[in-house]
Design goal:
The structure is a homodimer of 335-residue chains. By secondary structure, chain A is an alpha/beta fold. In chain A, 36% of the residues lie in helices and 16% in strands. Chain A has 2 domains: 115 residues, NAD(P)-binding Rossmann-like Domain (Rossmann fold), CATH 3.40.50; 194 residues, P-loop containing nucleotide triphosphate hydrolases (Rossmann fold, 3-Layer(aba) Sandwich), CATH 3.40.50. Chain A has 12 helices and 11 strands. In chain A, the strands form 2 sheets. Chain A has a 6-stranded parallel beta sheet, sandwiched between helices. The radius of gyration of chain A is 20 Å and the shape is globular. The mean pLDDT of chain A is 96. Chains A and B meet through α7, α8 and α9 of A and α7, α8 and α9 of B. Chains A, B: It comes from Paenirhodobacter hankyongi. Chains A, B: Pfam families: DUF1611, DUF1611_N. Chains A, B: InterPro entries: DgcN-like (IPR011669), DgcN-like_C (IPR035086), DgcN-like_N (IPR035402), P-loop_NTPase (IPR027417). Chains A, B: This is DUF1611 domain-containing protein.
């Protein structure tokens, strides 16, 4: 993945609601320094609270890349969008997108980008020939977020920890393994699109040797207990060579995401399986804490749940997005 | 993967030794009814003990597909081979290959195949758009071979069990997940070349609903303890939904294949991790036995080792290629 040039103009298109612009929201929340302005088309119902800009004003404000921060149904590039994208290339912007409909599959965009010397970044698919993992021990420290299920807050957990570590002056980098994370940070590995044999190697590539005290905070994917995607998770556990695992959970979910009939594992089961497997690659790996997505719980209820978890599991537990990541960073700093 | 038409003419090319023709050997050992003849070029040092045929005699003998049963260094298609392959297409044969150098990447072969209406089968890469796994319980029975390491005999174990089951009149099919296995049986999923998100789905696709007493005997890949390939293994454990696991081991290996510094797990560790994970997809899954590759042990030594394993693990243990698969099939039939 070639590094995407910053800062960004966030393209919100004709987003039908705020949720459709979650990529733009993620960039604005986690890399506000990249989010210079927003481009909204007629009828756009999303608003990041950023200055509204047209292409000329965004160019003058220093934006280098127009990032498609919105997803419509089916992940396609609509004709209405395409006019704006062509004009952006002509104005001198690169384009970046995580849509299933690749920029490179649109002949008009390819032709204009070539004519204008601009780059089309499709973060949905890999642009690197990753190696096969060699398992050699790397320098520096690594944290991996592992979940009882998909979409329980693993990306937000890693980003919250990065923010808190950086606030403390620690050396730390979020390492993106999914499309949203890559667009937020401008770099990463789209792990779900990597060829099976190269998955663990792509994670080694993403988290190379580093300073002894540097932390790679690796975005998790899937779950070892999610039968559709567990192979991807396994590659993170072994390719990531984590020194520390943070267990991620969403307590109100009735069944595994997309799998009616599959109940979520207990946090104890996740701890035991993930740690056993992680120690194959790094015998020193430990579980340092629990991150709970409490968005569907009242504040009192959430705090009582976290207190009970801490007592039961003997590990610090928090909702890092709601209550801060201090406890998790304290535990990581103690390694 | 489109089914490869049988029977085969086995192309041994200019194989420098018998080992270079291990694909041809596998077909001859496990699907002798497909192996009508062999085609050997000047200087060929391999011999399957089959009738030597030229293209015309093979055609007259009923061969439908020329299978490249030999691998040279780098997996490339040499100019000397290409002449034979072109002539084979013109003679009316399809071609099948597991080489890294794809048939479809050779313009001359593509042109002649098109002109003659023949099919090029590159089993190295998928030709199917596999679904994402849905985890829905399927009918029929499934056995998965899981290993302490790569290349410990998982394919041979599944093939030995298939042979013994068929000899007993049981309904059983070996399900190939690697290039050699696909060429042996003419069908399967090249799992190491599947995109990450679709790995488990491709295994579900390979092992669909079947008669209640039918056994799918699924070829394993990699190992849950091999950090380069464990994600592929994980997808087999969850996508395969096995009712039974057979543990596969090679006792004389000093370290994990290709990973100096990584010791092999114990069979107990493999049993515990594999069973815990397999029960996510199929709570009724059991470990039925142990298959040991004893090729580097004297017969007495091998028998003593197997007896000790049986006592220690409380499971039937055999080298199915050397001593027969009866014990494993007895255990499977009892489920």
């Amino acid at each position: 993945m070639a590094q995407i040039e910053t800062p960004y103009l966030l393209f919100l298109g004709d987003a039908p609601d705020q949720l459709a612009a979650k990529v733009a929201q993620g960039i604005k929340d986690w890399r506000p320094e990249f989010a210079v302005g927003q481009y909204r088309m007629e009828g756009c119902k999303a608003d990041m609270g950023l200055p509204d800009m047209n292409l000329a004003t965004a160019k003058a404000a220093g934006c280098r890349t127009l990032v498609i921060g919105v997803a419509n149904r089916g992940g396609i590039i609509s004709p209405a969008w395409k006019k704006v994208l062509v004009a952006a290339l002509e104005e001198g912007f690169d384009l970046a997108s995580g849509l299933h409909n690749l920029l490179r599959d649109e002949p008009e965009l390819v032709a204009v980008a070539q004519a204008c010397g601009r780059t089309l970044h499709d973060v949905r698919v890999p642009s690197v020939a990753y190696p096969i993992a060699n398992g050699v021990k790397r320098t520096g420290k690594r944290m991996l977020a592992v979940g009882t299920d998909c979409s329980v807050g693993k990306m937000y957990t890693a980003l919250c920890i990065e923010k808190e570590m950086r606030a403390r002056g620690m050396a730390a980098d979020f390492r993106a393994t999914g499309q949203t994370g890559i667009l937020i940070t401008g770099d990463g590995v789209p792990l779900d699109a990597v060829i099976a044999d190269f998955m663990a190697g792509s994670v080694e590539y993403l988290t190379p040797d580093n300073d002894a005290e540097h932390w790679d905070l690796i975005e998790g994917q899937g779950s070892l207990f999610h039968v559709s995607y567990s192979g991807v998770t396994m590659a993170l556990v072994h390719g990531g060579q984590p020194d520390a695992l943070v267990l991620c959970h969403e307590p109100t979910r009735p069944h595994m995401r997309g799998l009616p009939g599959y109940t979520l594992p207990s946090l104890e089961a996740l701890r035991d399986v993930a740690l056993t497997l992680a120690r194959v690659a790094n015998p020193a790996c430990v579980v340092v804490g629990i991150s709970v997505n409490t968005q569907h719980m009242a504040e009192d209820e959430a705090k009582a749940y976290l207190a009970r978890l801490e007592a039961e599991m003997g590990l610090p537990a928090t909702d890092p997005f709601r209550f801060g990541a201090e406890k998790l960073v304290d535990a990581l700093a103690a390694i």
